[in-house]
């Protein structure tokens, strides 16, 4: 049975709290639950340097109790209500117009500076005509969207609130997170404002599918209970720093789409770069190579007498992309090995700018270190011949090709 991963924004129709709004999550490798989850359109996660985003630390180096974490950070967590206008349609039989009711999506977010900027999920505010932000002191403010990025499911809002009413939360280093680390999630599940739940990091380096079908990499998996309405809220480490933005839950096929102990958060280091670009430019641009690839398995390399046993096989090349213009070749024949389907006969990429590429993850991360327009050198094998190709990266399209 395909995995059922769902966003965790609660959707209210005509004022009634209901199910979840549409979302996805992360991985350059296609949608979770597809038959070839290792196929990827290489993209850039965040071009801007994370160092350009700062926030006032909320805690020191010592571990805090759950109560201490909550006391320090809960005032910086907000409830977000976004209203999507109804649509006017025409009755196909009588030609008379009728309107569907407006919808409200309920989610969470958190303050990142004294200027009133708030981070949340893109899917919480997607298509909204009105956004209201509520604070712990019961004050509410209208918010405007500074910018959003469907590819990482991140949005930045701004409210005109007094600086003294704002409690910024610090963005921590998600790369330092390890399995077993204790975490606290704070959000508004089912409209229950500023609810705290606790658990551990149960896995790292997960891939979840973004709202636009691309992927968010290095996602954190947690067993801290999160539900609809937690979307956009902070996942905090034992020092009270934000190491992730809660975004999705795994339901395991449960039709109630409630928490079953597996949730996913967008890593803070991805958030830093995305937020930096939004604050600087109002938008995010991702570099785009324009290939789909699969890991080169040593057994596959031996079976088909390939010149190397490590690298990535180019499966296809997107027309008009930088890869296509550079003459990179995709696979020409279909092969199935141990139940896995491959397209063979294409180039095998082994390095980018002299840095070894042993997996699709490595290629993705190396592309993510660049911005659109950058030029880089790919080292690859075409048949038995080792060659170098100069490629100019393009801009990621609004949705994956095909």
Per-chain topology:
Layout: E1 5-7, E2 10-13, E3 16-20, E4 40-43, H1 66-73, E5 77-84, E6 88-90, E7 97-99, E8 103-111, E9 117-120, H2 122-125, E10 130-134, E11 140-149, E12 154-159, E13 182-187, E14 195-209, E15 215-222, E16 234-236, E17 242-250, E18 263-267, H3 268-281, E19 287-295, H4 298-303, E20 312-317, H5 322-325, E21 333-337, E22 340-344, E23 348-352, E24 355-356, H6 360-368, E25 375-382, E26 385-392, E27 394-395
Antiparallel strand pairs: 1-17, 2-3, 2-8, 4-19, 5-8, 5-10, 6-7, 8-9, 9-12, 10-11, 11-12, 13-14, 13-16, 14-15, 15-18, 16-17, 17-18, 19-20, 19-27, 20-23, 21-22, 23-24, 23-25, 25-26
Distinctive features:
11% helix; eight-stranded antiparallel beta sheet; six-stranded antiparallel barrel; 402 residues; 2 domains; elongated; Thrombin, subunit H; Pdz3 Domain; 40% strand; mainly beta
